[in-house]
Amino acid sequence: MDKNSQLNRTLGLRLVIVVVIGNIIGSGVYKKVAPMAAELQSPGWVLICWVLGGIITLFGALSNAEVAGLLADTGGEYAYYKKIYNRFFAFIFGWSLFTVIQTAAISSLAYVFAQSLNSILPLPQLLGSLADFSIGGVFFPFADLSVKLTAILLIVVLTWVNMRGIKSGAGLSTAILLLVFAGIGVIVFFGLGNSQAEIGRNFELATTSPTPVTFSAVFAAMLSAFWAYQGWAAIGYVGGEIKDAHRNIPRGITIGVFTVVVIYLLVNMTYLSLLPVSVLEQVHEAGNQIAAVEAIRSFWGYGGAVFISVLILVTTLGCTNATILASCRTYYAMAREGLFFPKAAELNQEQAPASSLRYQCIWACLLVLSGTFDQLTDMIIFAVFIFYGATTLGVFILRKKMPHAHRPYKVWGYPVVPAIMILFCAALFFNTILVRPREASIGMVLMLTGIPMYWWFNKKRRERAQVPTNEKVVS
């Protein structure tokens, strides 16, 4: 095979950790405490859900790390599922990344970036007379059109940056992540140290609530927490560009996720100490407000609101960039096997999958026009936990299929930890259908479009290979 069709292994452990954290810390750390407070009406339960979300995320990350250490390759779970299950299931995963999981994540992050920019420099209203126009009463493409167009512009610009090569994209993520850490450190230090941070009052009887906290309410709140934790598995998509991937991917995932869990607990404790639950409920109901901005505004005024808005701009810029960087590698891997649009298998002079980046860019921009932030994120979490469960189940399957294979990392707490993760994924799947039926339905429909697309791509692959039509394709 021509050397120009091969990805270069240029990422060491430090950049692996940067990509892991950069794919996680985005909009959720600033925005999701408000819907969680509205759902639970208790600061204590909000923090409990952040802790539970962190524990479950760690369980999933540890399980994923064993599979990644054993099967590391470009495409992440797409490459793993071919060996654990079959080609068809691997394709459905890759197609789900393209239609729902990663492209909607890019859209959501870019949308929050544009919202934050709008709060600093109000954008001119565009086509306001069409704001109420809807498609089926579900999609409102012209609502907040100036914000959406700004989000689209960001996606296009960052796609161009990543066409210049993975080192360029990862270098930008490193610089942004350092700024994000500094900004979050300032929030926690001055927020908890401020005289208005009445931790005692706001957390008195912290787990009490005006209404009973139900099982479904906890799961609904955890959908928000999981959006904030979402993204850690994306490092697997660039497995073919990581030095000593079988060791560095498990180590990078574990270090990165644990770091994020600690950061999230500190920063959300800060928000809850500054704002009572009643205020956070109002923030959620307003729809166009961000909890972090209101928390910092409460003691720093307008200057604090500008500071946190700029920090959100920087954070969502970094996370959008990291997500764009990692996600397109799966479509590249699929195209090389004839299971995606053929041009996605091509690399440019910088050894970047430029056509794959373009396809991703176009669909992500369309998703920006299709939905609201919370609608997109709930849809993502519903879809992604199906595959988190499948990867974790793979730990058991691979232990049976490949009992003597060298494993650079073995999941801590086996078999209890992966078993808990699988049960939780199943519970979240069914609970989301009950409490968020619209988001679950949209996500499922987009995922199931992969069935006819698998047939179509296989048909085209047979035609290119001149395989007789009556010959079956092995899956």
Could you walk me through the main structural features you see in this protein, from its secondary elements to its overall organization?
With 475 residues, this protein is an all-alpha fold. It has one domain: Amino acid/polyamine transporter I, CATH 1.20.1740. It is built from 18 helices and no strands. It has helices at 13-24, 28-31, 33-40, 43-71, 77-84, 87-120, 145-162, 166-193, 199-202, 215-229, 245-274, 277-286, 291-336, 354-370, 373-401, 416-435, 437-448, 450-465. The longest helix is centred in the middle third of the chain and has 46 residues, at 291-336. It is globular.
Enumerate how many helices there are, as a single number: 18
Strand content: under 5%
Low confidence ranges: 471-475
Helices and strands: which structural class? Answer: mainly alpha
Number of self-contained structural domains: 1
Rg computed from alpha carbons, rounded to a whole number of angstroms: 22 Å
Mean pLDDT: 82
Distance between the termini: 24 Å
Main sheet record: none
CATH architecture: Up-down Bundle
Report the count of strand segments. 0
Element-by-element helix/strand order: HHHHHHHHHHHHHHHHHH
Shape: globular
Give the oligomer, counting copies of the same chain as homo and different chains as hetero: single chain
User: Roughly what percent helix?
Assistant: over 70%
**And the CATH topology?**
Amino acid/polyamine transporter I
Provide the CATH top-level class.
Mainly Alpha
